[in-house]
Structures
1.
Amino acid sequence: MNLSDHPTFLMIGSMKSGTTSIFEDFTRHPGIFCPTIKEPDDLADDKVLTEKGREEYLRIFRDAQPGQWIGEASTAYTQYPTVSGVPRRAKDVLGSDLRLIFVGRNPLDRMKSHYRHDVQKGAVTRPIEDELEANPFLFDVSCYDKQLDQWLAEFPREQILVLHMKDYIQTPKEVVHGIWKFLDLEPVEMEHGVASNVSSGKRAPRGLMRKIVRSRAYGLYAKKFLPSGLRKNLRQIIVPKRDVEFRDDISEESRSSLEAQLKDSTSKFDTWVEEDRKRLGLIS
């Protein structure tokens, strides 16, 4: 299998940490190919290990040109233990030379954004503290060490780039150029700094419409023939805007408890971020 056959890098999360914006920004490089399908998630299921499942996954990269870096971004790849076994599948399907990009942010801010995302979809109606107590998934995804340890069990540290969302917000050009350096790509001149997938007030498709826009057929065949401006206009017409008042205040007692639980995890994440800032010269 040559370079143009399969992904050679993955953006593996974390959810609600700027992954969409950063991915859309750095993949504008002509030396990179990414599919029109948003978050294919194939490596989150054992189906990808079957002949049919592998063929279906690799089909979405069929338009890549020889010599391009090929990649995709799926935040389901760092949602352990709800989603497990992803690093093993990635290694089995894509090989041991895979490069990985992970983005995190302040873990409590990530939880709140995650909560707003779920409220916007209509999946959650209870207050955030009740949701945190009932749904450990929000907390687990913010345990960045737990998520990355799964990948470090299969891939060496030097093949994993760990970024902080705030660095991209403050210095997008430096972060994007650092990612290109990580992928052995020469920089190209373009504007950087975009904002995608903001939760508050966005038009969130639900029900049948959500199934359509997230479908493989839409991503492979329809989306690439619709200019982004036209897709945006259609979304405004078809998908109603949901102006939801978010009540995501966390009491000081709960905040202190969560910060204490996340202290070691956050410290480890910060260490990895600082290592990669120095490794790639992202931030002086």
2.
Amino acid sequence: MSDTLTPAEVEAQKYAKREAEAREQAKLPYQWHQTLAEVDVTLPVPAGTRGRDVEVVIRKQRLRVALRKPAADGEPLVEGELFAAVKPDDCTWSVEDRCTLRVHLEKQNDMQWWPHVVTHHPPIDVTLIEPEKSKLSDLDGETRGMVEKMLFDQRQKGQSQDQPASDATRKREALEAFKRQHPEMDFSQAKVDM
């Protein structure tokens, strides 16, 4: 996107790009959706298909989905190198309503958007992905603590340049507690970097 475009022109270009991607993606033999942690692939299969009629092989960097009774052209439904590594032991598949095959892939790197499922299929522009809003309560303890610290530091910075960040606050609180524990010591000449 160029810096000389108006916001409306930028939005129009994004819209046109999304439309072109949607047309390309519609030509694929499957539909797919992703979060940062996983990819879900949905394929139509002939009515009456059961699990035993399908061959699904999920390897760390490769996916193969085929019907045991090959289609007229004998080609697998999907076969190729995955964009990135998955955790094969955490991946699953199922036949639903005897007409839809769902393949669930757990990404090994759960902080990366995929431009495509298999590398020889047309990519999407991952910069146009608008992730769902998440809540702090959805995060694990360690990540939540880091995010809360960053938010605190950001608020302190935004309120005033005089407000200390969380590390400085923690150091100051530790120093004050030490002073209370040792009233016999003279801290009047102490210099502390915060």
3.
Amino acid sequence: MSLPAASRLLRTTLRTRLMPAANLTYKPAKHNISAGEQAIALTAMFVTILGPSGWILAHLEDYKTKK
């Protein structure tokens, strides 16, 4: 099912006005991060995200019981 030409033209016009093209530039990094710093950052992210989830899953039976 195709849209009439006027509808397609209007949709294209609105799309280009609402979302202008991004100005992307590709440059080398200003600060090089060492492998140790990357490992620390990745570990911190995993602990922050997976730690609470693991705690909840490990204690799920405790949460199910009413005291």
4.
Amino acid sequence: MRFFTLVWFILLFVAMPGFSQQKSRTCATELYQQTLEQLQPGIKLQQKQATEAAQQYLSQKRQGQQMRKAADLISIPVVFHVVYNTPEQNISDEQIHSQLAVLNADFRRTNADRINTPTHFADLAGDAGIEFCLASTAPDGSLTNGITRTQTSSTSFSANNNNIKRQDRGGAPAWDRNQYLNIWVGNISNDILGWATFPGMGSSSQYDGVVLFYKTVGEPPYNPFRSQFNKGRTATHEIGHWLGLQHIWGTGNESCSDTDYIDDTPNQYSPNYDCPTGTIVSCENGPYGDMWQNYMDYSDDACMNLFTNGQIAYMQAVLNSSRSELLTSVACNGGLRARFEAETDTLIQAGELVQFRDRSIGVKPSSWLWEFEGGNPATSTERNPSVTYKKPGIYKVSLTIANSEMSSTETREEFIEVTPNDLTVYPVPASNYIIIEQPAHVTLRQVELLNRAGQVIMTQEVTTRKAELKTTGLPSGLYYLRISSSEGVITKKVTIIK
């Protein structure tokens, strides 16, 4: 009788809501990378450029340039997009707040389980100087709690597509990735815990961010789901990817020849699963062995507790290069920042119209004051004004936005360049050089200098709008310039004096 009672109890426990029978960590970042490469041709090049930018920053930092003070913290605004099909998947605000607390503890190394870092790895572990805050301002300037909720007819989502990030596929659209870290939370298929995008998303910015299985968000008691992945470390792991980190064993599986490109993480043969104990030696990395306590391994949540200083330096480099626009976000502090752009080219011909757009971020402004040096009108209080520039020159533009409590100004020197409407050659007369300048939108191709007899004495290939022809050493006299451009061929007389 006792045997049947025990069996009944075990079956009942397994059947309880929230119990997970998942056996090992499954991160789909590499699988999703393959999906992106199929859906977004050219993304590997963009990611390569982001990697090079981070490495360049690290190189400059080693040389004493662009140093960030240790006391300077980076605060990253976060928006959680909860996409749910059942009430259970519509996780609570408290569970999300718990996840934020886990992230801040892990990235600042204030996590209680840091005492479990082995002594031989303790000196390698560090404070990343990165904090996370729930956005208080939405992209349209309205107030927000940093959480969106989308009910969907989709029963689950996959790393084989972007459906969870697409409103037309049952998901939720991203907020501006230059102002927010987007984290999608939903029911993920195939026992996958999450995935992330690497830096360098380029034109695929609407898919940039992290995806989490809803049962991995936060920690008990706010995370009610029983599993070895209920302490919020999946988010820590995936944000590590989002900040450019590879898995600690490298970019492949079961090999000692690949790398995670971080100097102070031991070379490791393959992932470590569950909750290891003692020393696991692989790839001749003794005496201390694999760093299975690292957030970028596959250990259970309870056994992860560190980023290395090398990993931290790389994440900081990413935040100061390809993800640097996040450093100016005001999405968490309720501020506002003036920003603008020109919809048309900022290199124009005299008399052309320029359409300006307010791209300010933060809370909604109630007033706009534009100042246009050389423009007509010279000032405007419209949000998106149109301006005409009649005279050639290089002009600055300034925008001041304000509400009842604060204001912000952005000024861009030499923002608008206005050219003449016709080909211009100067100085007149010339001496040591001749400048040939075409109007905006016209490109030079070749410039030839001919003497009075029609003989070509100098040729210069050009691929820009403006060119300089050196005439030092030529005798005084009358010459001809034969100018080939995207508009055709034209000849101009020039006089050279000494």
